[in-house]
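Input for the complex:
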Amino acid sequence: MSLEERLRKWLELEREAREVRRRMADWDFIRRQPPRLRAALVYYVETGDIRTSAKLSGLELEDFRELLRRANVPVVV
Amino acid sequence: MFAVADTCFLIDWARWRRRDALFGVFRTVFVPESVLGEVRSEATLSWVVESMAQGRLSLFTETPDLIEEARSLVERTRLVPGLRGVDLPEAVCLVAGRRWRYVVLTENRGVLMAADILEEYRGVRVWRALEVIAAALRSGVIASSRPAEVFAEYEEDTKHFFPRRDLEAVLHELGGEA
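Predicted:
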């Protein structure tokens, strides 16, 4: 499999994961969060990048993971 | 069999009701110092510390040359367009996995991508909870006639979601219902 094919495969997997996150997220909960947490949650739903999202939120990684649980945003891996 | 675990794996796995099954699959699971530094919650920390005291988790101290290779890996993942960047704690795990043939335990897509895309890391075995649970079921560490329920328990306890295609493939292989 070429590099391009491999990257395409991962892009497709990420597209599917994003759909799951968007579908399962508790958007009412997300909308009720302070701006910084709300932005970080939306960023996570769209990208699945937990480290950058945690940094955006100002929370430690494990605390951000807990916030994802409360927002019903699954980690899809 | 030895493994090295990153933060994303540990903080989910520690919430699972059958978390100690990990030690039936692996003789020792190494936890790099950089990973341990990111574990903050009392629940995760107490499980990690207890498991260390029992010799089932072991602290892994990074050497300067390993850190150097990990930093180089971090940079490389940011140079390939489309490849998700990995950060230092995950890079440390991947480098340790390559050097000592440890299974790398992660829930970080960047690590999975790096091990698939970057030539020199392609041989590293990278497992998610999905593969660990499958190994536990296959070897009898977890005895269950309903494998699908075991995976569902994990999803329920951790709010993790296994990609359905991957889960169905594993269940098919285990001979359970897909």
